[in-house]
Amino acid sequence: MSYDYSLIELRYFQVLAEELHFGRAAEKLFITQPALSKQIKRLESRLETVLFDRHNRKVELSESGRFLQEKVKVLLENWKKDVNYAQQIQQGLAGNLRIGYVGSAIQFLTQELLLKIRKGYPDISFELEEMGNSRQAQLLSEGSLDIGFMRSETEIKGLASSVVQKDHFCLVVPQNYKRLTRIQSPEDLSMLKEEDFILFDSEYSPTYFERLMQIFERAGFKPKIAHKTVHAHTIYNLVENGFGIAIVPQSLQYGFAMNIQFIPLDPFPQEASLRMVWNTSNLSEVLRRSLGLLPVQS
Last residue of a domain, which of 36, 58, 91? Predict the structure, then answer.
C-alpha cells in the first residue's frame, strides 16, 4: 500500500462521498467526470481499498469509504485551519513571542505590551521569563529570545534597542514610618544613613545599580546593604516587616497592596531607563508588530 496521495485526491474523495454521483461531484470540482473517475480509482489503488461500490449508475460508499469519510473531513478541515494560521503567522497576526525582562519592568510590560497584544492580536501568545541583562543579551544573540526589557543606560553591543521608559526613583518605607515623610533635598536622605537598605541585585543590571549608588553619593553616604534581591515583591515584603528600607523606580509603586509607602526622591536627577532590546536578524513578523506597539522615549 502506498501513502503517496495528495490533498486534492482526498478532496475528490470527500466531494464524491457527499454527492454519491460522479456527474454532480465532477461539476462541483470543476473537472470532467472521466478525470474524477480516474483519480478515485488511482486513490483506491494506492490505498488498496475499495472506497465506493458502483452499481450501474448508482454509487455508494463502501464500509471502508464510510470509515474514511469522517476522517478525511476532519483532516481537510484541520489542514485548512493550519494553512490559515500559517498565513496569520506570516502576516504577524499569530504566533509566539518569547519575552525576557528584569523584575522591575513587569508593570510597564503588562500595561504597555501584553494587554495591547491581547486586545489587538489575540492569536499571538507569549512566553515570559524573568532574567538579568546578561542572560537576556545572550539569548537574544542566540535567537532563543525575541525581545528583552533591560535596565540599562547604554546600548547593548550587537543588538538593537530603544528606551521605552524613563523613571525617577522613590524611597520605600513601612506604612507607619515616622522618621521621614518627605525628601526635599539630598540632605534629607542622608538622615537615613544608619538604616539597612534592601536593593536590587547589581548582577541584574550594573548600570541600574550604578544609578542607585549615585543617589547615595549625592546624599553623602555609602548605604548599608542588608539584603539584595531581584524581586520587587520580596523587597516590599522585607520593608513591610521591618528588615530595612529600599529605593526603586517610581513605576513600581503601582500594583502592590502592602503596608508600605513610597516617597519620591524628587531632588535627585537620576533616572532608571527601561530599554527594549531585540536582534535585527530576527525576521519574525510577530516581533515587528510587537515593536510597533511600544512608545519610544527620546
Answer: 91
| CA-closest candidate to residue 172, choices 111, 105, 109, 232 | 232
Nearest to 121, CA basis, from 290, 295, 291: 290
Q: What is the pLDDT of residue 156?
A: 82
Residue 2 lies in a domain: no
Quote the number of domains for the chain: 3
* Residue burial 51-82, b: 16+ Cβ < 10 Å; e: rest: bbeeeeeebebeeebeebbeebeeeeeeeeee
Kindly tell me the sign of the dihedral angle through the C-alpha atoms of 152, 292, 233, 247. Answer: positive
Taking only the tens place, the pLDDT of each residue in 191-201 is 999 999 999 88
Q: Is pLDDT above 80 for 118?
A: yes
User: Which residue, chain included where needed, has cell 531585540?
Assistant: 278
| CATH number of the domain where residue 60 is located | 1.10.10.10
Are 219 and 244 members of one domain? yes
Q: Which domain holds residue 131?
A: 94-163+274-291
Alpha helices in 143-284 (DSSP H): 186-190, 206-219, 232-240
Residue 2 has pLDDT above 70, yes or no: no
Q: What grid cell was written down for 29? A: 470540482
The whole-angstrom separation of Cα 241 and Cα 264 is: 21
